[in-house]
Hints:
This protein is mostly helical. Helix content is 60%, strand content 4%. It is built from 29 helices and 5 strands.
Amino acid sequence: MSMERPPHPLIEQARGLLNQGQAESALAAARRRLAEAAADVDALEIVALVHQRRGQAVEAIAVLETIIALAPSLDWPRDDLAILLAGLGRGAEAEVAVRATLALNANNPQAHAMLGTLLTQRRDLPGGEASFRRALALAGEHPPTQVALAANLIEQGKLEAAEPLLARADQLAPRDGQTLAHWSRLRDAMGDLPASRALLDRAEAAGFDVTLRRAVQLGREKRHAEALAVIEAVPGQPGGDALLERGRLKEKLDRPAEAFADFVAGKARLAARDGFAYDGAAVTREFDALARLVEARGLPPGAARREGPQPVFVFGFPRSGTTMVEQILSSHSAIAAGGELQFVTEMVSALEGALGGLPALWEPGVSETLRDLYLDRAGAFGLMDGGQPVFTDKMPLSEVWTPVIRAAFPEARLIRMVRHPLDTAVSMLSHNLTHGEFCGYRIEDIASHMLAVHALTGRYRAALGDTALAVRYEDLVADQEDWTRRLLAHLDLPFEAACLRFHENRRYAPTPSYAQVSEPLNDRSIGRWRQYAEQLAPQAAALAGVIADLGYAAPRAVEGSGRQ
């Protein structure tokens, strides 16, 4: 019978020092041991831990990779590696690392939980859900994983399934602010503001920072001055999300110049924090290559698969009304809400990867492969077995990939949402959105991307024809019933009065628009840009052609305010 050798005395000394908070002394002891035995995994672990405590993630990753090479069967260095990579924003590498861990040990609950986090972050919500559930099945009840699963379910709109997880996590760890904050958000989404406030009070009493959440909740109750006071009472510089919320509140209080400054500053702070930047030159090159390919080759061949539920694609910029249209449509008995699905992006990734590049789209059988990939993913999301023949896919700006969509789904119904470009631009600037190659972090880049997308889709329409129903946000607001009937007729579906009461739809829309789609249709957000006419003057000039093409009057600097 083999006995595990005890750690070297220097390792025991280093661990004791580390537990006492003496990281530098622990590091010195570990290095003395490494001078004697360079492959001592225990000593390397001490070095990696010290790097992590110092915030030296890159150095810690290098040490962990050495440990993995020396001891490939160990779970913990792979688990730590995935966590560090994810913390650096290197999610794809983290996913590779965690999948490698699971290939060696499929019963590693931490790896399953980490995979659930990574999949949830990249919006593979059912995949994330399955990974979290597997982690819980292996490890038993574990409040952080139960809360993570609940947060995933909230994003899927499965509010009733999420609440028991939060309630149980609260029983197991009754003063956890993260649990209470998520539960407060859930009750808010359910329309139970008193319960949401009470849970937020408990989170605050537990020492959790609820400043931003409190301000958002007060804003939802139209208590804008109180909400602003909550944010401004916090000492120091607010973070990017707090600046955006502060700007939205100042707009409600008729302080547009200050609001716009907060939007700009908040987005700059978020972009710097997350390392996001828009590469307009790269976008121009990519879009021109796409358009040239379609102009040269025409519509790719496609073959419809008519059995089973089919997608309807809702095109448009973020904040253009796509969520509202989805909420209207999903109030119909024949339509399920898919939300912002990643499947078109996954088709493109497959096309550019294993299938050999975009020109392969015109090769026999490729469109069928892409179609089946999409529908298989829809099945994993539960969109194929709900009994409804149609489901929505409203991922913003998916019109960039119109040739891929029309090849995979030649009979699919397309809806193109249009809103005044300056209203859309202001709304994008005032919310934290990553769509459109990160264009939303600067007003100049939003306008540039609008010009690029407008030019690309115009070339698509000239080369392929236009099968989409164009719906102007302003027209839908002005005559909801007429445009609702047109939408349903476009889908060959009979009119149902429930679609006019979309705000009563119990489905939770997990986007910045959820507060708007829980109210009856109104025109408060139309003309919002006018209060920012001075700040938007350069963008109004740059977008003049787009504004005219979409049928809107030329912008004029006027007073007034519309809000969203």
